[in-house]
Known about the structure:
Layout: H1 2-30, H2 34-39, H3 43-67, H4 72-84, E1 93-94, E2 97-103, E3 106-109, H5 112-142, H6 145-149, H7 151-178, H8 182-188, H9 190-197, H10 200-208, H11 211-215, H12 221-235, H13 242-265, H14 267-307
Antiparallel strand pairs: 1-2, 2-3
Amino acid sequence: MYQKIETLLATAMFFLAILFLAVAAVLVQYLQTDFSFKVLPYLDEMFHFLFGLWFVFLVERLIFIIFCPLHRWNRLTFSLLILLFPPLRLAVRRCDAKSAIWIYPQWYRVEPILLKELESWFLYVSLSISLLMLPFWIVEIFYAEMLYENLLLHHIINLGNALIWGIFVAEFILEFSITPRRGEYLVKHWLELFIIILPMLILIRLMQLGYLVSLLGWGNLAELQVFKLAKLRQMLSLYRARVVFNRILRILTLIDLFQRWQQRRNPQKYLLHLQEKLAEHQEQIIEIQQKIKETQQLIAEKQNHSLK
């Protein structure tokens, strides 16, 4: 009986996790600057929506724990992580088969071929959206003042950046949950992890200020808005370079996507490129080893001279 319910829940929660991630991505992007914060419509409603959606994940996790007692402690720990960050619901395995994961429109067996298919799909989606965003990123990098003069352009850039960030998060959650060598995956995909974490630094500071708590209803947003903005300017002095960080983030995103696309498009050529880089590094290593040897000989000569 629970298997049928689980499939229905898997379908619903998959889309709710995507929806939660989409709204969270918009907030992560817009709350990075005071100007974006001011022009984001329905800000208060969006936080209330996420807070209400969180209760849906809470109820679903309780149902899961009650009807799926297998590996209860492990599942309880992961359920708590989901409540901290609901998009992690994308990585949930089937109750009676830990080797099965739900990715719309069906259950898939966790195996290397699934990981390769996901990597390929996310790569081309991210690359396509990034190419569409490229003209807007050029404006953001070289003509930032236009973002304050053209509100439509400002929204297009922020929403596009939010979409790409959300795709990176979904890709990382799914692939990390599927790969058998997670340590190796982190080393290989450190750049994607950096792209995901960097925008969150601003929100961490906001939570330390109690800003998000007040937006959930404990305080009058209109009355406290001036105070909050003044407090943000004071407390976020460490993040005055956030515009530079954002620009670096766009460049790193393109570099990462291009490298991954090049690797898949022509793996033989990419392998040759890597071998050439390895040969260059080996030459540098030989030079460094030679300098170390010369320095050691110089030290030995000085020691012998001092003994005499």
